[in-house]
Design a protein that fits this description.
- Helix content is about 35%, strand content about 20%.
- By secondary structure, the protein is an alpha/beta fold.
- The protein has 3 domains: about 200 residues, Rossmann fold; about 120 residues, 3-Layer(aba) Sandwich (Cytidine Deaminase, domain 2), CATH 3.40.140; about 120 residues, Cytidine Deaminase, domain 2.
- A 6-stranded mixed sheet has the order 10-15-14-13-11-12. A 6-stranded mixed sheet has the order 18-23-22-21-19-20.
- Helix 8 packs antiparallel against helix 10 and helix 17 runs parallel beside helix 18.
- It starts with 20 loop residues before the first strand and ends in an 8-residue tail after the last strand.
- About 5% of the residues have low confidence.
Length: about 550
């Protein structure tokens, strides 16, 4: 069977649609009362269910129980409440069609202009350690039905599944209603939301009960041949340098994400069989992960695990806001945060050790999107779970960074061995100034490793085992030097500096010298090395050459 078809000439165009009637049923009540106040103030009729209706009513706002609409009391412990024609006709009526409008009138059903639904906390329940019926009861039925119905009928209905979008609703109230473009974007987000939810449910059945849907063994990724393989990447026929002549990439669909880097982009997470990376992490708390969350979490883990001592990296837009080592994770976090507290707001934190209660108490006062670590002390979880939305990821047992990296380019893929080596300080060449003191050398070694996590061109200033200024992603090295010095401020004086590649001219180095940097480590290899070294010698600044670079694009 197929859905109905209508003559295109019968459709009346609708763009801005005023919000007159809203259906609200939410498990996550973040921002609910603020939104309800705005809707009530705009004269919007609110229809709601169970605890949502009770919450709105307790705040003094007029609300209609859904049972008053259906004439059918919520029953079976709330399993049946919105699955009723009076609800779904109001959601699904396509008011671009005169026939639908007339049928609603005959049925005495009022349409909904706005549907606000988020689903039972299935993922959170699984993450809590619950089992069996306790998990099954958190499989939402009516919620996804309403979400999908409203998303399908986005020509007439705005569907909201994320409390972060409430602000767009309140704005629409003052602008004459939601626009078609807005409703299309809300619908796309809603379908991604239910898809992710269903994927989580299917995954639980597969992992817990050993029941996997037929055909679910592999999901093809566009442009790739997805075949069962023991490793994420299999290769054959090595070339002279060891590069394989062919690649096969195998990955399973793990989760459909709300959207990609931007709300109009589709996105999903695929998990490679046999791998032990960020894709295999377990979410212990918080909102669902986004595409950008995964990108930044991966960058943060990569940065933290470059160090052997307890280390913390704070990442924003794939660049470090701060990196530090310390006697404990709490100490390392405090030092990393101090590098750039402004940029760290809303950042992603990774640690290479278990998050202790002390570390959690250091993190908790700061707005943070994600914390990822090999583990969390129970008392640390208690502290962090007080923050409703913070995402807590526990790395899988046997976590390891891969030895091979792939990057998609138009029409193909780039493959390279991962950048994992660091030239030992004993192999560095001293070309200027006195040998570094033990304290300086420790900071230089730290800076050399930490600099690898910074987007090129990269300059990192360090002091006391922590970054104090970072210049990243500039199209010339002198600008990166200015940025690092500017962010460090007074902390630049007496600090050490690392540069991910050679100084092509002495001007960038001179910026560091003028700021009071006491020692520098850099690869060397420029045709103007003599000029750069001469500038360091003239200033009496200690400089080492490593003979290796660490570009990170």
């Amino acid at each position: 069977m197929a859905g109905p078809a209508h003559d295109p000439a019968l459709y009346r165009h609708r763009d801005a649609i005023p919000v007159r009637r809203a259906l609200i049923s939410v498990s996550d009540k973040t921002g609910l009362l603020e939104l309800a106040a705005q809707l009530a103030g705009a004269g919007v009729e609110m229809v709601s269910t169970g605890s949502t209706a009770a919450t709105i009513a307790a705040a003094g706002h007029p609300v209609t129980e859904v049972s008053q609409v259906t004439g059918f009391a919520e029953t079976l412990d709330g399993r049946v409440k919105t699955l009723h024609p009076s609800v779904h006709a109001g959601i699904l009526a396509d008011l671009r069609l005169e026939a639908h409008e007339a049928q609603l009138a005959d049925l005495e059903v009022s349409p909904f202009d706005l549907v606000i639904v988020n689903l039972y906390p299935f993922v959170e329940t699984v993450a809590s350690g619950a089992e069996g019926d306790a998990v099954v009861e958190q499989i939402d039925i009516g919620g996804p039905a309403m979400v999908r119905a409203a998303a399908k009928n986005h020509a007439n209905v705005a569907i909201i599944v994320d409390p972060a979008d409430y602000v767009m609703v309140t704005k629409a109230l003052t602008l004459g209603g939601t626009t078609l473009l807005q409703r299309q974007r809300f619908a796309a987000k809603a379908f991604a939301h239910t898809a992710a939810y269903d994927t989580a449910v299917a995954g639980w059945f597969a992992d817990t009960l050993g029941v996997r849907a037929r055909g679910a063994e592999t999901k093809p990724i566009s442009g790739l041949r997805a075949t069962p393989a023991p490793d994420a990447v299999s290769a054959s026929g090595p070339a002279a340098d060891g590069s394989p002549s062919t690649l096969q990439v195998s990955a399973r669909l793990q989760q459909v994400l709300r959207y990609g880097e931007n709300s109009h982009q589709h996105a999903a997470l695929y998990r490679a069989d046999g791998a032990h990376g960020i894709a295999q992490a377990t979410q212990l708390h918080g909102k669902e992960m986004s595409y950008n969350n995964y990108v930044d979490a991966d960058a943060a883990v990569r940065a933290a695990y470059d160090h052997e001592a307890p280390a913390v990296a704070i990442i924003k837009h794939a660049n470090p806001c701060g990196i530090a080592v310390g006697a404990s994770i709490a100490d390392a976090h405090a030092a990393a945060h101090a590098c750039d507290p402004v940029s760290a707001f809303g950042g992603v934190i990774a640690a290479n050790r278990v998050i202790t209660r002390a570390a959690a108490e250091s993190i908790a006062p700061i707005f943070t999107e994600v914390v990822v670590a090999p583990g969390f002390e129970p008392s640390a979880l208690e502290v962090l779970r007080e923050k409703k939305n913070i995402r807590l990821l526990q790395l899988p047992d046997g976590f390891a960074l891969g030895d091979v990296e792939l990057r998609q380019v138009s029409g193909g893929w780039l493959r390279q061995s991962a950048d994992r080596q660091f030239a030992a300080a004993t192999d560095w060449q001293l070309v200027s100034g006195s040998p570094a003191s033990a304290e300086q050398l420790a900071d230089l070694e730290f800076a050399w490793r930490a600099c690898r996590a910074v987007k090129s061109n990269a300059i990192l200033l360090a002091s006391g085992g922590a970054s104090v200024g970072v210049g990243m992603g500039q199209v010339n090295r002198v600008d990166s030097c200015h940025l690092a010095v500017s962010r460090a401020g007074d902390r630049a004086r007496g600090s050490v500096a690392a540069s991910d590649a050679f100084f092509p001219f002495a001007d960038g180095l001179q910026v560091l010298i003028d700021a009071g940097v006491s020692a520098v480590v850099q690869p060397g290899g420029s045709v103007r090395d003599e000029e750069v070294i001469a500038a360091a010698q003239a200033a009496g600044v200690t400089m080492y050459l490593t003979g290796e670079r660490h570009f990170f694009h």
